[in-house]
Amino acid sequence: MVVVLALTGIDVVYACAGLGALCAAVLPRALARRPLSLPIVFLAAGFLVFLLPLDALPDLDPVRHRSAVEHLTEICVVVALMGAGLAINRPPGLRAWSTTWRLLGLAMPLTIILTAAAAAWLLGWPPAVALLVAAALAPTDPVLAAEVRVGEPTDEEDDEDEVRFALTSEAGLNDGLAFPFVLAAVALTAASATGWSTEGLWHWVWSDVLVRSTVGLLVGLAVGRLLGWMFFQAAWKALRLAEHREGFVALAATFTAYGLTELVHGYGFVAVFVTACTIRGAERAHRYHRVMHAFTDQIERLLTAVVLFLVGGFIADGGLEALTWPGAALGLLLFVVIRPLVGWAVQIRGRAVGWERAVIAVFGIRGIGSFFYLAYALGAAEFAAPAEELWAVVTFTVLLSVLLHGITATPVTARLDSAEEAGGPREDTP
Q1: pLDDT per residue as tens digits for the range 269-307
Q2: Cβ-count burial 135-155 (b if 16+ within 10 Å, e if not)
Q3: CATH T-level topology, domain 10-428
Q4: Long-range contacts of 200-205 (CB under 8 A, 24+ apart)
């Protein structure tokens, strides 16, 4: 008797999901201290699987499935933002977070301006398209930056090196603060038909920059303080969730802050990170922070595995066929020239010194947040460039980041740790 096995799409999904979850659990430890990152492995796995002659594999066209891409990447980013905020031990402050403020207030807008100018020069894109790609590629991604992020929460407020702290806090806030520039690109492409006006400019400054950012900050603070009181100080024991050690509460905090903020038209990414930092400050030494952080870290790894696997499959399916040499040059220019020079310059006379400043400048990791912003903008307006070309440029840039930063992150951070343990002058770090 001959048994014929029919390979269906759901069979492939189950198999890949199971193997991916196992790999997400095993690989972080297996790859520790090696110049290879988890994102590289899942990207390569997706690429190889989608090269196989299997009819059951799904269609990964982000143009046709724009909404699915937007919401999958959105979930991945907000979970990562909660984990990043819970992990930071250093209390917020003007001086303590001075490197962060420099990276957000100076480096990010300068990077957007220079990248947009380079896009217009290299590819001949109109201003709206150039600004969109520049804004999408501006944020330092909290999802793919695991190797250069701070670790789990500890009892010490000053045990974080400046490199890990700066990159983590930058990634936590600039995912939300890049939103006004994306909305500016959307408004600019709409104004190309009706004409740009001073009224439109002031509306962008007032509404998209000031009001929505402030709403995100205020809602994040309010939700964080309410949840912090409930977790650690509520008189009713059933509300003091810190005593019950349930990590999934971190997801409740994440989606509560994000959903409420979006309902009142604020920036949810900002609110989630602020909520996490506020909860962290409610009872800084409590071990419950580790429980919530561990849970968000596990969910983040699973979501990262899914997204990077699909990105690898998209590349195998010809996702980079629309990439031109000028588009590739734009991604290289961002990595080799724009971010390093801008990141270095804004830190002059700052807290970071020597090699620390160089590492912070170079490790402006691009990733899943870029996919979200591009998908969001393409759903909000019609841009005067083929969507396939925009996806190819952004995907190529993220691919560069995954490979270059993934390979160099472990040796670089190991060298930083060795220098710190040796107790030598930070300026002399090789």
Answers
A1: 999 999 999 998 888 878 888 888 888 988 988 898 889
A2: bbbbbbbbbbbbbbbbeebee
A3: Na+/H+ antiporter like fold (1.20.1530)
A4: 204/180
Summarised one tens digit per residue, pLDDT across range 191-210 is 765 556 566 778 888 888 99
Task: Please measure the distance between the N-terminal and C-terminal CA atoms of the chain and give it in whole angstroms.
Answer: 69
Q: Cα–chain-centroid distance for residue 67? A: 19
What are the percentages of helix, strand and coil residues in the chain, rounded to 5? Answer: 70, 0, 30
The tokens of 214 are what? 């402030």
- Output b/e per residue, 41-53; b: 16+ Cβ within 10 A: bbbbbbbebbeee
User: How many helices, marked H, and strands, marked E, lie in the chain?
Assistant: 18, 0
Q: Are the beta carbons of 119 and 129 closer than 8 angstroms?
A: yes
CA dihedral 45, 31, 295, 373 (to 10 degrees): -50
d(CA 28, CA 24): 7
Q: How far apart are CA 255 and CA 272, in angstroms?
A: 8
Domain ranges of the chain: 10-428
CA distances to 120, 234, 244, 377 from 365, rounded to whole Å, are 22, 40, 36, 21
What is the DSSP-derived secondary structure letter of residue 158? S
> In Å, how far from its chain's centre is CA 104?
14
Torsion of CA 118, 120, 125, 131, to 10 degrees: 70
Nearest to 139 by CA among 181, 96, 98: 181
Query: Contact, 353 vs 420, CB < 8 A?
Result: no
What is the distance between the alpha carbons of residues 276 and 36, in angstroms, rounded to a whole number? 29
- Asked if 206 and 174 touch (Cβ cutoff 8 Å), the reply is no
What residues contact 270, with CB distance under 8 A and at least 6 apart?
173, 176, 177, 213, 216, 217, 220, 261
pTM for the whole structure: 0.89
Q: Is 6 left (phi over 0), alpha (psi -120 to 50) or beta?
A: beta
Residues contacting 234, CB < 8 A, separation 6+: 240
* 286 φ, ψ (degrees, to nearest 5): -70, 140
